[in-house]
Write a structure and sequence with these properties.
Strand content: 5-15%
Protein name: Putative gluconeogenesis factor
Helix content: 25-40%
Organism: Actinomadura miaoliensis
Order of helices and strands: EHEHHHHHHHHEEEHEHEHHEHEHEH
Oligomer: single chain
Keywords: Cytoplasm
Subcellular location: Cytoplasm
Family: Belongs to the gluconeogenesis factor family.
Strand order of the largest sheet: 3-2-1-7-8-9-10
């Protein structure tokens, strides 16, 4: 029997996190994604504005990346990633987004993200007959607490048990008055169980966030002026140069399970991905940033294969690291992995890595088609080499 591998937490969102998770699930069975929750565009933005929930899109993509390569995994990956095409309200909504939000509503997560107490969740008699029934849940037991407990219990299947354990369910070794497990996390665990996900997916914060960027030259008529640009989509598409990012609210509550995963990890992986809108925001959630700085885990940075238009135009690989250090001066890095084919100045990059306290690994991790995409198998090989040293 093969060993389960190291406990790994991967940070990010969108296509970059999809790439790292697609590689990491080949390397370890104890994998946890901690995902940004600041998307304000597309299907996620519409659901966020209409229902007050966390934007589900980046969470959905992370779950899809953790699907296996068997028929079950491929089928459910395609289902949750499928987008409707229509002339009506469903146009461009992703099936997985709707599935995640439906589970959150059934489990009461909407009330929590809106700041209401847990006991304001929808009453049991508002659920359809047989909703979320499982062996541990009967029609007579459809209370909010029992529903959440059953969800977490069911989510403790092999797929979830291979990663970091969910918080104890009410009544399971906890005294009277113990807090009910976050239904947002329970809903994601349910979807992971359905997909047979090879790992666990958690939000980085318990409330929806907005990214605010300081941008030089956002207005072409004033190329030297620094202005504030708000919103993930606007920040990603700004024609100016992004200097720094912050969050609104400035002190959001971190997801407790995400903090615990970082504290218990053997390795933490930053990137690849949109640097200012997917990677750096994790370092602006104070409790999560503290955990990332103080954890005994070793830290890996996987660099992008190309600058991202708008966000990081003209960025060299070492510039990404300099910006990382600016946003988290106390963060130390153990290893930086970069594709040897995109590094024009290895000496300069090596110096930037050493300034963060780490060492540089140059490897062939790009796909063969010439696109700025990581090849999952090659990136997995690089992670294997890193984790074994």
């Amino acid at each position: 029997m093969n060993p389960p591998g190291p406990r790994v937490v991967a940070l990010g969102g969108g296509h970059g996190l999809y790439a790292s998770l697609s590689a990491l699930r080949r390397v370890t069975e104890r994998l946890c994604a901690v995902v940004t929750v600041a998307d304000d565009g597309g299907s996620s933005g519409r659901l966020r504005r209409e229902l007050g929930v966390l934007p589900p899109g980046d969470l959905r993509m992370a779950l899809a990346a953790l699907c296996g390569d068997d028929e079950w995994g491929r089928t459910w990956r395609d289902v949750v990633q499928h987008r409707f095409r229509s002339e009506g309200a469903l146009h461009e909504h992703a099936v997985g987004n709707l599935l995640i939000v439906a589970l959150w509503e059934l489990l009461g997560a909407q009330a929590l993200t809106n700041g209401a107490p847990a006991d304001s969740a929808p009453p049991a008699d508002a659920l359809p007959d047989g909703a979320l029934t499982d062996g541990a849940l009967t029609d007579e037991a459809l209370t909010d607490e029992a529903l959440t407990r059953a969800a977490v219990s069911a989510a403790g299947s092999a797929a979830v048990a291979r990663t970091f354990e969910p918080a104890p369910a009410p009544g399971a070794g906890a005294g009277a008055g113990a807090p009910v497990t976050d239904p947002t996390v329970a809903g994601l665990d349910w979807v992971g169980r359905l997909l047979g996900a090879h790992g666990r997916v958690l939000p980085m914060a318990s409330v929806p966030l907005d990214i605010v960027a300081q941008v030089r030259g956002a207005d072409p008529a004033a190329p030297d002026a620094v202005t504030e640009v708000k919103g993930q989509v606007a920040c990603a598409k700004t024609p100016g140069k992004v200097l720094s990012v912050s969050l609104v609210p400035a002190d959001p509550p971190a997801c407790p399970d995400a903090v615990r995963a970082v504290e218990e990890a053997d390795w933490v992986v930053f990137g690849p991905g949109s640097w200012f809108t997917s990677v750096l925001p994790h370092l602006k959630v104070p409790e999560l940033a503290r955990a990332l700085t103080e954890t005994k885990a070793r830290r890996v940075v996987a660099l992008n294969l190309a600058p991202q238009p708008g966000e990081t135009d003209d960025f060299s690989p070492q510039t990404h690291l300099e910006v990382l250090q600016d946003h988290a001066p106390d963060l130390r890095v153990d290893v930086v992995v970069a594709d040897r084919g995109v590094v024009d100045d290895p000496a300069a990059l090596d110096k930037a890595v050493q300034d963060l306290g780490g060492r540089l690994l140059l490897a062939d991790v790009a796909a063969d088609d010439g696109s700025p995409r990581h090849d999952p198998a090659r990136l997995a090989q690089a992670f294997v080499k890193i984790f074994r040293e």
